[in-house]
What we know:
The chain is α/β, with parallel strands linked by helices. It has nine helices and 18 strands. The longest helix is centred in the middle third of the chain and has 17 residues, at 267-283.
Amino acid sequence: MKKGTILLLSIFAYSAIFAEFAVSNSAKENIAKIGETIEFSAADIPEDARFELKQNGKRVSSGQYSEPVKFTAEVPAWLEFKVFAPKIKEGEKKREEKACGVVVAPEKLKPATAAPKDLDKFWNAYKKEVEKQSPKKAKLTKIRDFNADKSPYGAELYRFEVKVDNAEYGSIGGVVADGYIAIPIGKEEKMPIVATFYGAGSYSADLRDAVNFAKEGAIGISMNPHAISPDLKDEARKEYIDNKVHLDGGKIPYRNRGITETPQDVYFTGMFKRVYQTLRLAMSRPEWDKRNIAVRGFSQGGAQTIVAAYLCPKVNVITPLCPAMCDNGGESIKRRSGWPDWVHNETMTTQLENGRYFDPALMASKIKAKMYVGIGLIDNTCSPTAVTSMFNNYAGKKQKLYMQGVGHGWNDEWSKTEKDFILTNIGLKK
């Protein structure tokens, strides 16, 4: 069966101003129905511009752009239309380009695979491992006070280090789980928690995220995604991300460690254990109100955000932005999955099976926290279909924001509404 039909229309006039060229589509609010014909157009482009149209990450048409492009999707899908301008100067490496996206029948998108029957058993065993180590034994090193004389709300700032059993899961630099915690100064009533997690790469935690929510009257916490000491020099971090420093001495990037072996060997087992222990540390604070925990993060941090709510049911608000790892089996049904791209086709059965234990889209059916998720409509790293499949499988109250013209990132609307969503739902804003 054909996946769609393409028709070219001749209605376009060129403009000499190509630096400001734009693309658009005819779908209402960037959402279309199966069988609906969508028209993709470009304006103010040079005569030698080229276009590319993809369905679910696979090219369906391309060539020199001279006329608007029509496409009719016959399956639930993500469509990406991109127009490339030529290089302005000889030797330039990049062409100017603009893109827009459409989601077809988003309500019909479901994860490509089912959750393993022992998903809860698998993670409950690791939770018990983590719980053997009391978060109250965490090492807290005071950094400084932040605007203590101008409260509300200045904050006491600490670096935390908290032990997790089986530190061999990616431990580099001697630190098991660490990050920063900011406690508002001068606030007598108990406080909610806002935790931030981070994207792929060898990053540490960012102190500013903890501070920014402490300013709002919350216990702010930010976690280093890896067991990498923040004291580690940049050269060592570069070695890590360049795949040269690994526990086994090999050159497998951390995202792929263990995926061809067993779920127990997958690198993210350790990362998610550290997420859980970090939340336990935050909940051990006497300042916590015992009711509200908000968790936020981008990309890999978005995946950690959803996993945090799965592992810790006390989490009641989450705001994942372009969350990674969703619909890990998407490529097995010829649909773009999310980073780390473990599965490229239906024959990769080991990766397909192991990936199910780390898929936020499959954990989503167990989560009751309120969720607000941001989805980039031209995101080729964490595709709109992958994230939407997670959204549709999500059990709790939920909202989504499709961001037009946004790849793997965010826009101003998300930056404002995400913070408002958190503060409102944890009682810090009416």
